[in-house]
TrEMBL record:
<keyword id="KW-0012">Acyltransferase</keyword>
<dbReference type="InterPro" id="IPR000182">
    <property type="entry name" value="GNAT_dom"/>
</dbReference>
<dbReference type="GO" id="GO:0016747">
    <property type="term" value="F:acyltransferase activity, transferring groups other than amino-acyl groups"/>
</dbReference>
<dbReference type="InterPro" id="IPR050832">
    <property type="entry name" value="Bact_Acetyltransf"/>
</dbReference>
<dbReference type="Pfam" id="PF00583">
    <property type="entry name" value="Acetyltransf_1"/>
</dbReference>
<dbReference type="InterPro" id="IPR016181">
    <property type="entry name" value="Acyl_CoA_acyltransferase"/>
</dbReference>
<keyword id="KW-0808">Transferase</keyword>
<feature type="domain" description="N-acetyltransferase">
    <location>
        <begin position="16"/>
        <end position="156"/>
    </location>
</feature>
<protein>
    <submittedName>
        <fullName>MarR family transcriptional regulator</fullName>
    </submittedName>
</protein>
Amino acid sequence: MNDSFKIVPFTSAYAAAFKAINQQWIEQYFKMEPSDFKALDYPQENIIDQGGYIAVALLDKEVVGVCALIKMDGNRFDYELAKMGVTPKAQGKRVGYLLGQHIIAKAKSLGAKNIFIESNRVLVPAIKLYEKLGFVEIEGPPSPYERADIQMEFRF
C-alpha cells in the first residue's frame, strides 16, 4: 500500500461507513439479520463499549475497509473478528489482509489467546484470506447467524 493508506481506530465519524460497507456485502450474498442491525446500528454501544475495537482502513482519507474485534465473554474464545468488509473499488489491493493483520495485533495487545470467526463458504475470497492470516476451521458454538456455515479460530 502507499503513503495515503492507513488504519485508524473507529470514531463516530466512521459509523455510517461501517454500516454501509457491511450492509453492502451482507445484502449482496445474504440478508441482514437482527445481530447485524445490533452491531451496525450501534457500534459504539455494542462493540466498543463492551471491550471491543473497530479498525477503519483509509485510502486518500476515504473509508475503504472496516473490521471489528468483538469481546466474547463466557465461552472459550476471547474475541471475535467480525464485520469485516472492503469496498468493491478497494478489493484485491490487500486492504482485507492488512486489516486482518491489524486486528490480530490489536487482539494480542489486549491479551487475547484466540480469535473466533464465523463466515459462509460462499465467501471464498474471505475464507482464503482468513486461512492466509492463520485461521483454521473448527467446530464452534451455535451461531446466532442463519448464514454461518463455517467457524474458524486463530490461536496465539
